[in-house]
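User: Sequence recovery, please. Input:
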């Protein structure tokens, strides 16, 4: 009598099931990896775009900075820089900037004091549209006139608290005006007062 041996093995169907399971697992893993890659690339692009927007100033000074000199009524009644006038516009590639006092922060700094000069009262710094559509948004093609009246500086607005005469920049001294919009880099204006000046002159 001939005896036959029993042989155990996988059938083609079992092999196919295992292969399909591997393929599905690999596909799911690949989907997760690709999805994370897309999310990371999108986040990186957003960060780069935001960084470029913050790194470049949204506001530009149009033309020169005009200074007016006169008696400011300080302790020594010196002839000082009493008023500053310049024009601003929107730089290329930026969204409109809100110039309302609730959105824009403006400061003045010299060697002795620092002051916030733009608020709802509008006595120190005022912003007026030249060819705007009447709102506070600085949009493409629009220009705004900025006027800073240093004679309106008060002890309550300055830190540290100094006398009014020390609030003004002196000859050969530098002062800084900074406009900080809600988005975009700070617009900085730095000038040095000349020793000899006329009543009205452009500060280089």
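Assistant: Recovered sequence (204 residues):
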């Amino acid at each position: 009598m001939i005896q036959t041996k029993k042989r155990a093995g996988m059938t083609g169907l079992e092999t196919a099931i295992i292969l399909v399971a591997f393929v599905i697992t690999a596909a799911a893993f690949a989907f997760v990896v690709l999805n994370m890659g897309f999310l990371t690339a999108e986040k990186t692009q957003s960060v780069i775009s935001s960084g470029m927007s913050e790194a470049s100033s949204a506001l530009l000074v149009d033309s020169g900075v005009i200074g007016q000199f006169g008696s400011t009524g300080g302790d020594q009644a010196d002839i000082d820089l009493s008023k500053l006038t310049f024009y601003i516009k929107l730089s290329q590639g930026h969204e409109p900037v809100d110039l309302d006092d609730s959105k824009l922060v403006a400061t003045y700094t010299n060697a002795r004091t620092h002051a916030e000069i733009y608020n709802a009262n509008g006595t120190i710094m005022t912003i007026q549209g030249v060819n705007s559509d009447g709102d506070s948004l600085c949009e493409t093609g629009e220009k705004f006139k900025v006027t800073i009246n240093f004679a309106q500086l008060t002890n309550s607005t300055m830190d540290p608290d100094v006398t009014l005469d020390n609030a003004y920049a002196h000859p050969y001294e530098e002062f800084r005006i900074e406009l900080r919009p809600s988005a975009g880099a700070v617009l900085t204006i730095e000038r040095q007062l000349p020793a000899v000046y006329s009543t009205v002159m452009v500060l280089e």
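The two ends are 117 Å apart (CA to CA).
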